[in-house]
């Protein structure tokens, strides 16, 4: 199975700040990488797919980049509603696997 | 609009069988795959398995011997059955739709159902 390693595990940032979350795959996943946002007590929601494509309705302050084994999620101008846990997931090979998650809190 | 909703018992005794139902609306089970993903309290997401639009299934190898996924297209329902439950199976269980047919890219999720394994 492809292992997905996220960093950091937790992150504290101020309103208006820019934050970056990293995701490392154990092998090349050819940009088949998705990011999900999970707000407290809710189900995950798809933010980004194929590494850099924004899902419908997702604010443009979210962006994704990367290739090969290294990917990142960037949030510009952090808002209070962005407090969540963020997960990466590879959909290159079965089984689909998730990163351990990054918990984003406000400072 | 697309909706998925899980239902099932909140409490299961150790060694017993878990049965969950995912009722979908807004799309056809013959056109989209539906998967089950679980999340132990305070932990990450684990893909359990899925049923494809053509009715074929795939399972996480760690759960394969205990897990079965089936469906009733006339009722727009997908079923999960997992036997020999242990305390480590305590988790929120989500059903989710995939928009790709190779692995899984999950665009809609149910609200989840909390299952506690305890005597």
Q: Could you give the distance between the termini of chain A?
A: 36 Å
Rounded average pLDDT of chain A? 97
Count of alpha/pi helices of chain A: 0
Largest sheet of chain A: 7 strands, mixed
Spans where pLDDT lies below 50 across 5 or more residues of chain A: none
Give the amount of beta strand of chain B, in percent.
over 45%
Report the average pLDDT across residues of chain B: 96
Q: Report the strand count of chain A.
A: 11
Q: What does it look like?
A:
The complex is a heterodimer of chains A (107) and B (119). With 107 residues, chain A is an all-beta fold. Chain A is built from no helices and eleven strands. Chain A has strands at residues 4-7, 10-13, 19-25, 33-38, 45-49, 53-54, 62-67, 70-75, 84-90, 97-98, 102-106. In chain A, the strands form two sheets. In chain A, strands 2, 4, 5, 6, 9, 10 and 11 form a seven-stranded mixed β-sheet that branches. The radius of gyration of chain A is 13 Å and the shape is globular. The mean pLDDT of chain A is 97. Chain B is mostly beta strands and 119 residues long. In chain B, strand 5 and strand 6 form a beta hairpin. Chain B starts with a strand and ends with a strand. The model of chain B has no long low-confidence stretch (mean pLDDT 96). The interface between A and B is medium-sized, with 25 and 20 residues.
């Amino acid at each position: 199975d492809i292992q997905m390693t996220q960093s950091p595990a937790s992150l504290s940032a101020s309103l208006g700040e820019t934050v970056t979350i990293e995701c490392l795959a154990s092998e090349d996943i050819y940009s088949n990488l998705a990011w999900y946002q999970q707000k407290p007590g809710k189900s995950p929601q798809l933010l980004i797919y194929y590494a850099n494509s924004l899902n419908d309705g997702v604010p443009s302050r979210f962006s994704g980049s990367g290739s090969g084994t290294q990917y990142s999620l960037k949030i510009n101008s952090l808002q209070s509603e962005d407090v969540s846990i963020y997960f990466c997931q590879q959909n290159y090979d079965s089984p689909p696997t998730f990163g351990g998650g990054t918990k984003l809190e406000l400072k | 609009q697309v909706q998925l909703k899980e239902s099932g018992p909140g409490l299961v005794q150790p060694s017993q069988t878990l049965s969950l139902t995912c009722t979908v609306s807004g799309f056809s089970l013959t056109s989209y795959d539906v998967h089950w993903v679980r999340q132990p309290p305070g932990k990450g997401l684990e893909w359990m398995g899925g049923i494809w639009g053509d009715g074929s299934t795939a399972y996480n190898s760690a759960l394969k011997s205990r897990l079965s996924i089936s469906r009733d297209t006339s009722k727009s329902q997908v079923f999960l059955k997992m036997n020999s439950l242990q305390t480590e199976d305590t988790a929120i269980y989500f059903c989710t739709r995939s928009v790709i047919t190779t692995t899984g890219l999950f665009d809609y999720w149910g609200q989840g159902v909390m299952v506690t394994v305890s005597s």
